[in-house]
Design a protein that fits this description.
mainly beta, N-terminal domain of TfIIb, 79 residues
Length: 79
Amino acid sequence: MRIDDDLLAILACPACRAPLRVSGGDGGAAPELLCTGCLRAYPVRDDIPVLLVDQAREPEPPVARADEPPGTEEPADGG
């Protein structure tokens, strides 16, 4: 899958308006456009980006790393 750089430059996430970047599409992974803001992943079908929020894959919640003691992850409100 190849998305034209000029097209990619004008595309934005319909949920948060952040820029998108190409993800996957090689090594067997399904091609997606990944939002650099809210991290939603929009599918690309037949080389056409599907920029519908209800079709996007939501980001997965962060997972605590094995080298961090439990309870040391950042609070959800960022503070």
